Amino acid sequence: MAADTSQSVAKAADDGVGNDSAVRGRSRRTDSGNTRKTGNAGSAGNAGALKRALSTHWYAWAMVAPVVLVLGVIIGWPLVRGFYLSLTDANERNVARDIGARHIDATYEFVGLDNYTAVLGDPVFLQRLVWTVLWTVACVSITFAIGLALANMLNRQFRGRAAYRMALILPWAVPGFVSVFAWRFLFNRDNGILNKILDGGGIAAVPWLDDPTWAKFSVIAVNVWLGIPFMMVALLGGLQSIPGELYEAAEMDGASAWQRFRHITLPGLRAVSMTVILLSTIWTFNMFPVIFLLTRGGPGDSTEILVTQAFREAFITSPRDFAVSATWGVLILLLLMIFALVYRRSLRKQGEVW
User: What is the pTM for the complete model shown?
Assistant: First the structure.
């Protein structure tokens, strides 16, 4: 009896272990099956959500599609093409071209990152970069300061305010190349109005565009003059969105004009200021017309910035080096992207949503 009992207990234990293994096996199969079902359900749900979004907002998609297509053709394709050319040795001697009825195929070759190594290792790149950064910082900071001062003046009630607004916005309405040519005439060393005025006061003529230092001052002054209207209008809109009750309460509490400006105006303009500074920085960094039309990068190459150097490589130097020009362009884009990302990150740290 004892032996039979022991055998029964062992058999029961074995049966229990076997049943547990079978249960675990069925559980694993069930779990894997549920996982597959969940994955399929998720994919089907995503597809269904996309289908519902398309069916609900089809009109918006139809309106946006032409814009996306045009931007892809005008911006996307040249960007991809330029990046590809920067990886080759393309110049005017080895690109595809037609001479009369004869067609010559392209013979340029893929060279990888050789162009980037050559440009970044060239001291010219560092010189252009330093001056471009100084030019951008000077123009944006001076434009912002003057635009903010004028916006504060025009935000008050006084006689003839509309006329003053129109006069200050006028540089924005004039085409840029017309404004630059007008300033070029003003800066003329022999017949310019500015030197005529100085000569009348007994002051020697200033070589505005013939001396490297004065040429840099001149291009900054012209770009500031062109940028003030945009900065002023944007900041004026921001000022008008600040509740007047805040100023009234601060004045009743005895706050001075500087305290009201520091603690009410500047915080109220923070969102607008961050946006206009970013846009102004990008525009100034790539401000080709002012430099090229006013000084053509001279005297010598003292006012040459990155974008004018890229233009020079593609259209002025001989042979025209399309690959190196594209390399300069890609580097400019990368620099601006890095600046925008760092700028955005700093804003998020300050609690600004952008």
Answer: 0.78
